[in-house]
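ok, trying the design again with the full structure, not the truncated one.
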């Protein structure tokens, strides 16, 4: 699938599990929608990389069309610089915990972004800007995204707020047995074995434009199952948005819609003390 911003899912094979073996190869995605470092940089080393290439303002534009284009470019550049500074602040709020929940796993803790009102506000704004840019929608309630689909449980932390900001509905993907009524089910592989996701059969109307969101893409199994469910229900899957990506697991290779991430995730060997 083509992605005009160059975020097309990698064709490289995904790592088979959450095991994060030492032999997993490093893979820095070339996409420019992420920070440039392997792990979350400390506040002293913010990564100013932005997903948006600022479009140059053209002072020579004379016609109304040119003026309109120039205005859009200027506003895009403004959004881009706002997003860059939000990312720097947000990255400084992230924490990592080695060997949680089991040895060898470096756990990315996003909770500080929610316990602070300021960072929470920044996070929702950053996601709104990111989505407006990569899916070419307007910010605010004029977005033409119909539904934000969030994955249990951490996708529920920001999916509904984001949906409100975008003027979209919110639909949950839940672990099996939690949703009443008729449901579609899709299996996926997790660290400790297989699991099933479900969506209510009437949750998405045929042709609705859907973006799937979650906090982290690791092996990509959860997100791939969610995408299959969206399509089973007749949704038009525009793509995926994650706060973070564990690059070395190559999870995006499992996804057949554009993948966008706010922050660079960890690469193998990026473990650090918290
Ligand atoms: O790309 P994957 O390998 O599928 O892993 C990513 C998923 O793992 C985590 O959720 P988890 O299943 O741990 O559940 P939680 O959000 O309920 O903690 C995370 O929030 C993603 O949903
Ligand atoms: N390393 C990690 N940190 C936080 N959540 C995760 N989900 C899967 N892998 C994770």
């Amino acid at each position: 699938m083509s992605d005009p911003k160059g975020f097309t899912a990698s064709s490289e094979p995904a790592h088979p599990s959450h095991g994060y073996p030492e032999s997993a190869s490093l893979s820095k995605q070339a996409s420019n929608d992420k920070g440039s470092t392997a792990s979350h940089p400390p506040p002293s080393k913010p990564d100013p990389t932005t997903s948006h290439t600022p479009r140059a303002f053209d002072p020579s534009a004379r016609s109304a069309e040119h003026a309109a284009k120039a205005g859009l470019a200027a506003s895009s550049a403004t959004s881009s610089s706002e997003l860059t500074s939000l990312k720097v602040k947000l990255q400084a709020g992230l924490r990592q915990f080695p060997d949680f929940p089991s040895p060898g796993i470096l756990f990315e803790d996003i909770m500080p972004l929610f316990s602070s009102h300021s960072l929470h506000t920044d996070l929702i704004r950053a996601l709104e800007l990111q989505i407006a840019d990569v899916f070419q929608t307007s910010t605010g309630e004029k977005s033409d995204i119909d539904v934000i689909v969030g994955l249990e449980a951490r996708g529920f932390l920001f999916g509904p707020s984001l949906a409100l900001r975008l003027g979209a509905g919110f639909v949950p993907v839940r672990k099996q047995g939690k949703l009443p009524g008729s449901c579609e089910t899709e299996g996926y592989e997790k660290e400790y074995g297989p699991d099933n996701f479900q969506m209510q059969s009437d949750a998405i109307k045929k042709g609705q434009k859907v973006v799937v969101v979650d906090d982290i893409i690791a092996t990509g199994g959860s997100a791939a199952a969610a995408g299959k469910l969206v399509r089973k229900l007749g949704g038009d899957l525009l793509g995926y948005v994650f706060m973070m990506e564990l690059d070395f697991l190559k999870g995006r290779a499992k996804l057949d819609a554009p993948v966008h991430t706010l922050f660079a995730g960890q690469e193998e060997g990026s473990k650090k003390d918290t």
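Keeping the full-length input from now on. Helices lie at 64-92, 112-115, 117-134, 155-166, 221-232.
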